[in-house]
Design brief:
The chain has helices at residues 4-19, 23-35, 37-60, 64-68, 70-93, 105-121, 124-133, 145-178, 182-204. The protein is mainly alpha-helical and 208 residues long. The protein has one domain (33-204). α3 packs antiparallel against α8 (145-178) and α5 (70-93) runs antiparallel to α9 (182-204).
């Protein structure tokens, strides 16, 4: 069982890490501005599902594969980069009323949620980060180590939901304001495409 001091220290560190600019919160920001707050929250739920996968991988020792195998690390990161380039291509092609108009319930529930999952699990750096971060707050003398790691991952996921939820709400309101102007919507699509492309390049060039 986690001690209160460990819990508070881990909670503070997790909140700060979630607030710090990174690929995931930037991704939520752009999706929220383009499609609204609900879209950002759905993407966030997808990202958190991916975090659950990474947490399980660390607890079971699977994440070590990406730390030790250059081939596995490279394949996964290139898949993630290719997916981001696909999103960038879609954003650049969209004009006024393009991406911002795709607000159907099916798109929200299926595509956006899945987009968050793919975005997260195809980034091997997340598994390696969790592999280095979570065990620092686990104490084998305090109980079952795997359960402690899962609990720590759960706390991090809750922090992600809270921080990214706020980002979704704020960015969604800002996006609604911009969407009143067709010209501004075109600019938002181009900016989103540029962000996706930059994230793809960053991920492709990432080293272990």
């Amino acid at each position: 069982m986690l001690s209160l001091d460990t819990f508070l220290l881990f909670l503070t560190a997790s909140l700060l890490l979630c607030i710090a600019p990174g690929p995931d919160n930037i991704f939520v920001l752009t999706q929220s501005m383009l499609r609204g707050s609900s879209a950002g929250i759905l993407v966030t739920l997808g990202l958190c599902t991916g975090l659950l996968v990474h947490t399980t991988a660390v607890a079971l020792g699977v994440a070590v594969i990406f730390q030790q195998s250059l081939l596995a690390f490279t394949i996964l990161k290139l898949c993630g980069a290719a997916y981001l380039l696909y999103l960038a291509w879609g954003a650049f092609r969209a004009g006024a009323g393009g991406l911002g108009s795709m607000q159907t319930e099916t798109l929200k529930k299926n595509v956006l949620y899945r987009r968050g999952i793919v975005m997260n699990i195809t980034n091997p750096k997340v598994s390696i980060f969790f592999l280095a971060f979570l065990p620092q707050f686990a104490d084998p003398a305090s109980g079952h180590l795997k359960l402690q790691l899962m609990a720590l991952g759960g706390i991090f996921i809750v922090c992600t939901l809270l921080v990214f939820g706020v980002i979704s709400l704020l960015a969604g309101r800002l996006g609604n304001w911009f969407s009143r102007s067709p010209g501004a919507e075109v600019v938002m699509n181009k900016i989103a495409g540029s962000v996706f492309a930059a994230l793809a390049v960053k991920l492709a060039l990432t080293e272990r």
